[in-house]
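Preliminary data (for renewal application), flavin-adenine dinucleotide complex.
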Amino acid sequence: MSAYEPSAVETQDVAEVGDVSPVETSAQVESCDVCIVGAGLAGINALFVASRYLSRDQKVILVDRRERVGGMWVDTYPYVRLHQPHPMFTAGNIKWTLGQKPSYLATKGEVLGHFEHCLNEIKRRVRVDEFFGWTLESHDETGGMVRITCRSAAGQVRVVEAKRLIKAVGLRVEPNEPLEFSSARVQSVSPDYCDMRGGDIGASDTPVWVVGGGKTGMDTAHALITEYPGREVNLVAGSGTMFASRDRFYPSGARRWWGGTRLNKVASEMSRRYDGTNETEVAKWFRAKYGTWLTPETGNFLLGVLSESENKTIAAGLNDVIMDHVVDAVDRNGATELVFRSGATKSIQPGSWVVNCTGYLVRRDQDHDYEPYVSRSGAVVSIQPRSATLHLTSFMGYFMTHLLFLDKIHDLPLYELDMQDLRAKSQTALPYAMFSLAQHNLSLISDSVPTKVFLDCGLDLERWYPLPRRLVGTTQFLLTHRREREHQRKTLDTVRERFDVRCGPLLDASR
Ligand SMILES: Cc1cc2nc3c(=O)[nH]c(=O)nc-3n(C[C@H](O)[C@H](O)[C@H](O)COP(=O)(O)OP(=O)(O)OC[C@H]3O[C@@H](n4cnc5c(N)ncnc54)[C@H](O)[C@@H]3O)c2cc1C
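Predicted structure:
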């Protein structure tokens, strides 16, 4: 555990720093014990953990270029619903105050409300100064301190000096723009700027083409079908998407005592089956036992969750499902046509709406540069997909911050995986490699942190189930995780060799 003295002088003006804009004359310098960049789910978990190690008079500076806490949820589409059980979408062990059943799908407003609640709860334990509207530009480590340079949209510069920096910048999810088309007769919109449940799209009765078969496509189709029964809604589903069936993982009511399958059980079975070469076979197994989908092909699995009833509603309400990728819409010979990657075309009604649901997670303009998950000095932790240590950024924010404060982050031979590169090389292998990674690293972590670290981890989806079932799971994990680690290590080594991706312990991987 670390305890430092707060800086005597916390704010001062100094001469101009670095390469600043012409409007800049001086940069404010602030000091703190920990600086966290990113106020999304990963950052708020890092903050929760930091607050457990710091005392009331120590200070955290929380930086985000958005204007409030919440990360990507701040500006994602308004009808988004949290597809996982909301109680486990939290910071550490902070409880929701919504008063809804665990199976309730939280809305965007409710998710943002919970972020606010988490921040307020954390502030009861440690001082948090919010630098919202500030973008991290650079950082460097000198003399045992990390110097962090941030800039506001107006060009002002602020410098933060911290003993530790946690960069929880996430997957760089940004609003999607409407697709650009040659046709002047289609109404191209993005869900992030056009709410399906009203406005011009609600007032019109022309057909809607939802482009993209992932989580956003499903939310959008569901919103349209339920809001406007009888309206023509079509889906262009790319290579198709598989979802984990909510009914199988999260049975509701009394069935939680005996029904469904614990996600952790499936994760360990999945990593037992996966050997780094057989992703197609494992995908088939997962799909048959736990998957749900509405497209005839199901190329992608991005850990999305969908219930059988949502799936049925969407399938019954769709007019046409096309397995292809839209490349343009054109007006020719008096008709309007969608043009697909395969070369095929489809005549559509002029005035049709085309909604860009092509996804947030795979845009090349959002690629991250490689950075190890922890710097050589151990003062900077970086949570992003190029050096992933666990399957989700929220878990990384939680566990990596514990390891940081326990001074163990350099001691464990954790594997890091370049998820961005692996996704580009094999979408099929990615989810199974991610679970092998998570099982391997959680096994190492569980051997080296106090039990309370796991007890306080409210992110654990195992909490869906009553305590006796969870205890069975914990006992199984404790009995088997060490001997399974060797298989997971071999699997990850095979993934590295086969796909030529960064995947291995930090020292091997980053030098
Ligand atoms: C449509 C959609 C629905 C989803 N639904 C679910 C769901 O139901 N359940 C689930 O578990 N996951 C869901 N996800 C995944 C979701 O991305 C994660 O759950 C989680 O919210 C990501 O948190 P994060 O902190 O890693 O990233 P983010 O939420 O993206 O937060 C990162 C923050 O870092 C800030 N930042 C980045 N770079 C800088 C910089 N240089 N300077 C300052 N600030 C910076 C960003 O502004 C951002 O606020 C969904 C994703 C999408 C796109």
